[in-house]
């Protein structure tokens, strides 16, 4: 069985399914991206921005990696991408309706990003912060508390108001290889596969 024949793991299809489901859950919680100007911080290879695009968002992706931005652009050339960092956003005041930090908030100088997000968001704009956790079915790990206490203190100190918070659980359940098996035309049953689940904690803030 060749790697083309296996078909058990299709990263692009899996990412599309996962993010479509996630965005629908956000919609259910009152956070819509359709026809809104959306900035995705730390957009990486563009999987999430591509999902935003297909949900009719007017999306811009920001990342500091030239390679990741090139990968993102090749995935969907119709999306606007900018190189830059979240602490110094290269955008004018009141440029976006929604700013999203998907799985990257812990990487930032958060007070600086809060200040920049406040500047580029419109008057009633929304900051959506998402924390991602992937669990293996053969682990006994529990999902972490919503967010670290210091994050709540930072939001309070900088006068951001919590609009809503929610969890999205069991976004996808799929068999993934515990180690690489796409080599030497080897058979799938020679490798140990594990089932994984993706959980998200989400919060929306308004200035």
UniProtKB/TrEMBL annotation:
Q: Name one GO molecular function term.
A: S-adenosylmethionine-dependent methyltransferase activity
Q: Gene3D superfamilies given for it?
A: Vaccinia Virus protein VP39
Q: Where are the transmembrane segments?
A: none
Q: Which domain of life is it from?
A: Bacteria
Q: Which UniProt keywords apply?
A: Methyltransferase, Transferase
GO BP term, pick one: methylation
InterPro entries in the record, alphabetically?
Answer: Diverse_substrate_MTase, Methyltransf_11, SAM-dependent_MTases_sf
Domain Methyltransferase type: start-end pairs = 39-129
- SUPFAM superfamilies from the xrefs? S-adenosyl-L-methionine-dependent methyltransferases
Entry keyword annotation includes Methyltransferase:
yes
Q: Which family does it belong to?
A: Belongs to the methyltransferase superfamily.
Q: What is the protein's given name?
A: Methyltransferase type 11 domain-containing protein
Lineage, please? Bacteria, Bacillati, Bacillota, Bacilli, Bacillales
